[in-house]
Design brief:
Helix content: 25-40%
Number of domains: 3
Radius of gyration: 24 Å
Number of strands: 22
CATH architecture of the largest domain: Alpha-Beta Complex
Number of helices: 12
Oligomer: single chain
Length: 473
């Protein structure tokens, strides 16, 4: 069953307590590329074999051996199971996968099961679906019931439980800590920006996806977890095992304040369900206290629901103005402003490399319409959206699948897969080194949690925004 479409960052900063994010046009009919995946059960498998190559290898092995069963080497090349039948349930495709393909997969599955009887059909099926999604892009993935439940909780703004560390996962590297939430178990253990997570409860996480890594770190409050961390400033250079107890970490969804005479400031962690209404309430409250100009802080905001982007964008754009166009394989869909009460309010938007997807869509629309100046550094560059298919291929499971590419009102795409330099270029660029940026993020979290930092870093982005609003501008 399809759910609202989502705009969220890829290897995105994901809290290991934590959340992911999303957006929402209709599901298009689009043929899925058939990719034969290498199973997680066989990490030494040879990559890149397409169906024809795999079939030729299969036939050659049988011919050479003169028997119907294959040597143990072959199963290392393939982990599929009736992929066509399983995936045709998920999305309407124009050219159904042929019976020849499914027969070949069935045949190979039997060979795998002969050599590896410990693998159930369900495990092989899940590995095959995972593999296909990995061939599409970094943003499509498969979730078991446990991960699906947490995903829904995150989208709906449920509380966060875990160790309170935000991580990102560069390809082929150990997860990198973006920041630790003040007062969380991870923060109290000394985990900071630039540290790397090496293992969770003894399991090396280098070859795991970001989703899988976060799922292992997270867990119910009160449960133990051991994290192996390579501290960037470690004197001996080796990882250290830290035993932590997971906790509920309460981070307000939205924060607002009058930070200078007539200047309002608003920050929110992501575009989650019902954010649009809360955002408007905060604007109304600041307007009553004399707000005449506004700073929207979207630094390190990884994305969210398209419905919330359009609700918030509509507050600042006249009715009928284009916010974004979603392009599917054979169709496109415009999303227009419904009009709001702040179409004349001057404002700026703070962005950085952690601003992704829905954050970029909103910021880019405001930039294209000349409604706001962007201040900070180049954004992430994710211009595609996903939709969730729940209870597929069976109850409790779900698939997070890329279904469309989005374009800004000017017609440009910010997707880094299409352009050498993806993302949005700020109107006013501010250079901040990584260490300072991490300290600013930590200070920002402390203020949001009403714990003023003892020694705050100079926030060059924010100071630039305040100078922009001075009378000379």
């Amino acid at each position: 069953m399809p759910h609202p479409i989502k705009l969220s960052s890829p290897q995105s900063v994901a809290l290991s307590l934590m959340r992911h994010n999303t957006a929402q046009p209709r599901l298009a009919r689009a043929p899925l590329p058939l990719a034969l995946a290498v199973s997680t059960f066989f990490p030494s498998a040879a990559l890149g074999l397409d169906l024809a190559q795999t079939q030729r290898l299969f036939d050659a092995k049988k011919s050479a051996a003169g028997v119907s069963s294959l040597p143990a080497a072959l199963p290392l090349h393939f982990s599929g199971w009736k992929i066509g039948r399983s995936f045709q349930k998920l999305i309407s495709i124009e050219q159904p996968i042929s019976s020849t393909v499914t027969a070949t997969m069935d045949q190979m599955m039997e060979e795998i099961r002969q050599e590896h009887p410990e693998l159930t059909e369900q495990k092989l099926r899940d590995a095959a679906i995972n593999g296909m999604l990995q061939e599409l892009d970094p943003h499509s993935f498969f979730m078991d019931p446990r991960a699906s439940q947490r995903w829904e909780e995150n989208i709906n703004g449920a509380g966060l439980e875990g160790i309170g560390v935000a991580v990102e996962k560069p390809d082929g590297e150990y997860p990198l800590v973006r920041y630790a939430i003040p007062g969380s178990p991870g923060f109290e253990a000394g985990i900071r920006q630039g540290d790397r997570v090496i293992a969770v409860s003894g399991e090396d996480v280098k070859n795991l996806s970001l989703t899988a890594t976060v799922d292992r770190i997270r867990g119910p409050a009160g449960t133990p977890v051991q994290i192996s961390v390579l501290f960037k400033n470690s004197p001996d250079g080796g990882p250290k095992n830290i035993n932590l107890s997971r906790r509920h970490v309460d981070v307000p969804v939205i924060y607002s304040k009058i930070i200078a005479p007539g200047v309002g400031y608003i920050n929110f962690r992501h575009f989650e369900k019902s954010l649009g209404a809360a955002f408007e309430q905060r604007l109304d409250a600041m307007a009553r206290y004399g707000m005449e100009r506004l700073i929207i802080d979207l630094r390190d905001n990884p994305g969210g629901l398209l419905s919330e982007v359009t609700d918030i964008a509509s507050l600042f754009l006249e009715k009928g103005k284009l916010i974004t166009t979603f392009r599917h394989k054979n169709s496109s869909e415009d999303h227009l402003s419904s009009g709001g009460r702040y179409v004349s309010l001057p404002f700026v938007i703070l962005v950085n490399h952690g601003s992704a997807s829905a954050s970029e869509l909103f910021s880019g629309a405001m930039q294209d319409h000349g409604r706001a100046k962007l201040i900070g550094s180049q954004t992430f560059g994710k211009g595609i959206s996903q939709q969730d298919f729940t209870d597929e291929p069976e109850a409790g499971y779900s698939v997070h699948l890329t279904t469309a590419r989005y374009y800004l009102p000017s017609g440009r795409s910010i997707d880094s897969r299409l352009h050498k330099q993806g993302g949005l270029t700020p109107d006013i660029e501010v250079n901040v080194d990584e260490a300072t940026e991490a300290k600013i993020a930590e200070d920002r979290l402390l203020r949001i949690m009403k714990q003023p930092p003892e020694e705050a870093a100079t926030d060059a982005d924010l100071e630039t925004a305040l100078r922009y609003f001075q009378p000379s501008n």
